[in-house]
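Appendix B. Chain record.
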Amino acid sequence: MNKKKIIVKGPAMSMSGYGEQCRFALRSLREYEDVFDIYLFNIGWGHTGFITSDDEERKWIDELLVKTIAYAQQGGQFDISLQVTIPNEWEKIAPVNIGYTAGIETTKVSPQWLQKCELMDRVIVVSNHAKNVFEDTEYHFTNNQTGQEGVLGCHVPIDVVNYCTREYEPAKLKLDLDYDFNYLTVAQWGPRKNLENTIKWFVEEFIDVEVGLVVKASIANNSSMDKLHTEKNLQLLLNKYPERKCKVYLIHGDMSNEELAGLYNHRKIKAIINLSHGEGFGLPMFEAASHGLPVIAPSWSGQRDFLYGKVRSGKPRKERVRPLFAKVEYSIGNVQSEAVWDTVVQADSMWCYPEQGSYKMKLRDMYKNYDKYRGMAKKLKRHVWNTFTPEKQHKLFAESVLGQEIKKISNEELPKISILTSVYDGDEFIKPFLEDITNQTVFNKCELILVNANSPGNEESVIKEYMSKHDNIIYKKLDTDPGIYGTWNEALKLSTGEYITNANLDDRKASWSIETHAKELYSNPEIDLVYADSYITNNPNETFENNTSGGRKYNFENFSKEAMLRGNQPHNNPMWRSSLHKIHGNFDEQYRSAGDWEFFLRCTFGGATFKKINQPLGLYYFNPKGISTNFENFTWKQEEEKEIFMKYQDKMEKENEEASIIQSIQSQDSTRTQNVGQVEG
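Structure tokens predicted for this chain:
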């Protein structure tokens, strides 16, 4: 496929929501640089600040701007235009024109927006709410010249592409919060965000309770006028409640992504509130949910796309879509007069009005029964990380822009893969291992992380030899031996890959093993971990292609909770998404032999989904000196496995018991309904 020259027009440097939307579009296209030749025309956006970071992405954006100016001066033409802004500003620029917008928070778009849609070949929006509003809006008109009646609507294809999760190292924030339990809201003063009622009703509910509300608000960084305006409004509101025990705190000004992550992860921030009348998508809620914060919000507009997730319930257990947040009841009414915006927000459009009583009830119930909502938030976090992955959303966006499915999965498309390896007493294996692993077909997409657990051997000299040949080998030597799982955790700290696998010094892989695992994960975004069978040999340093297994192999079971309880199905040859560690933690270092099994069980019972690749891709050496195979370790190894088994068998029994109770209640309810029907009939 010849590269398509695409010009992106949008606020790529803005700290606004549209700025983040533009950068998401650029990241998506960048993942497919073999398909798109990218150019950028930056536009301003409102009163927002500008990104000032000096990271790799910002440098790349600067390079695009310089590249575009040079190309335009040469009279260069484009195949596709992607215009990231409100529809008022859409125009024909290239043979193919695509409009990408977010801000649809009401029930109607303006006739001007519908007219602009006709200039586009396709429209991309960030939520199903936005898509439905575009498709449902119609205006009936009469031609003044002919008297003929007609209908104005949207007649171009509309695709939905949500945002994706992003990982940032949380910054340590010094927040002077008096109480341990604090809610958070991210909004600025104005009609749509409903910040005044968010604060007022909070204070009324907790007037005699030591609870806090943190308000993160800003239009632009260091905007003294906006800060004074916000502080004045806040003070006037709080002056009405001089005897209150609850506290309200204001954070004003732009925050970096790392600072926002620090805010969402602060030990005293317990939940996020969004009481707005409507959201295009609800990015702060989405980000907070990805960090495990419970969400309080109405079930309306863009946030519905991510606040509902599939959970398994009933008997037999089935996947059902459930709300994974504290739902605030609401009514639908006309937008406030001060929110009407010519050609943007229609006077006869509607949005939601959260109910005061319902909001207060959710605030109080969450404060009293926080564990319940924390459990719900864990499910939401898992749903968000599993569903809105960068690889999935970037692919969806690129396909929408291209107008066709991008079928080919090239090795270059794969995300980075981190290979975790513990080095201890491995003189016999280190060179054959390194030769084997560096011959993987996608080794250039990998980082091999070797952690030396204070080994008595001389592996280091060999490792440095290979490091001189490969710049993607990372090596660290520890002063003490923390055990296999402590070593893996040290490797995890150094890892930067989206996918994780382990590689043992004495085991070998098919040269296409890592590629096959990675492409399976890439093609199935709903799957969290993949694993495959392994041949078994009693002879050291054989290769997958040349071994004496005689076809003898581990035939692992297809994934299920029951199968996982029966044994470690992923065994020595799995690959999993790094997001599993964000959700379920790292390896438990108290275990010496079965810590990987315990981690996989933890993920399984936490809702993760695994898939078996039905082909052998590894060679397992039955090492008589290995931790798990040495007969001298049999007693403690058996006790360790028994402990893990009993722990998760208890979980299984509790789940089955709960499912049985639910089924019984449902059955009773069904009987009652039938009886009522018989009486009334």
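Further analysis of this model is presented in Appendix C.
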